[in-house]
Recover the amino acids of this structure.
């Protein structure tokens, strides 16, 4: 934060919280990979010393929201970093060709194979709509790999990835 | 209620596959854009000032973010 003093932003937000009985609410929408934008949004708020009172999210927004809400403020950004590092798909080639079509190669790989830490194709669903898969299993992709980001055992509540990796 | 929409921008060369573009480059650019837009919003602090108490929702759109937004 170069030209904006943190204290000034914090004072403005605190005044809003006090005077207007206000709350800071972060509402994050869906959109898959576009959710990286939300990491930047949170990063700026965090740097300015503004932690949201409420976080609401859909789809990737819910995942980011879960990571933020599930970790103490000092660990939120590092845990978001860790998650986004895991879902990154490095380009299939060591260079990035400029012409269109070829540059979409890694997106096509994602369509076919999913993202290992995030989602994978649910093959039975591709057989057609007549397959009796039930509500939970009818999606073309499954987010079951996301469960590995959480560590659960019988004696303790589930811990999100940041907390787990610090144990 | 003050509403400050922050909109992810269109990137150069993006396509209908943009929501599954998990390349480090695209993730980095989107994150940077979110950071910059939020910093601009915090600097503007548009919730400060005098507002009609009758007004239920006050929308603080940034023309710059709107112009750059992805579809």
């Amino acid at each position: 934060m170069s030209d904006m003093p943190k204290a000034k932003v914090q004072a403005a937000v605190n005044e809003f919280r006090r005077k207007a009985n206000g709350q800071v609410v972060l509402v994050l929408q869906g959109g898959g990979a576009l959710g990286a934008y939300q990491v930047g949004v949170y990063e700026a708020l965090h740097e300015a010393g503004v932690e949201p009172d409420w976080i609401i999210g859909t789809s990737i927004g819910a995942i980011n929201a879960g990571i933020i809400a599930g970790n103490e403020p000092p660990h939120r950004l590092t845990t978001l970093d860790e998650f986004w590092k895991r879902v990154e798909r490095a380009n299939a080639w060591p260079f990035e060709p400029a012409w269109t079509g070829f540059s979409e190669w890694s997106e096509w790989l994602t369509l076919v194979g999913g993202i290992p830490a995030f989602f994978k194709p649910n093959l039975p669903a591709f057989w057609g709509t007549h397959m009796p898969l039930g509500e939970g299993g009818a999606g073309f992709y499954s987010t079951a790999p996301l469960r590995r980001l959480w560590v659960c055992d019988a004696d303790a509540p589930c811990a999100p990835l940041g907390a787990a990796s610090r144990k | 209620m003050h509403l400050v929409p922050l909109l992810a921008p269109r990137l150069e060369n993006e396509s209908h596959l943009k929501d599954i573009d998990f390349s480090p480059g695209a993730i980095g650019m989107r994150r940077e854009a979110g950071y910059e837009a939020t910093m601009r919003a915090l600097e503007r602090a548009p919730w400060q000032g005098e507002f009609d108490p009758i007004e239920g929702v006050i929308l603080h759109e940034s023309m710059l973010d709107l112009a750059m937004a992805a579809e």
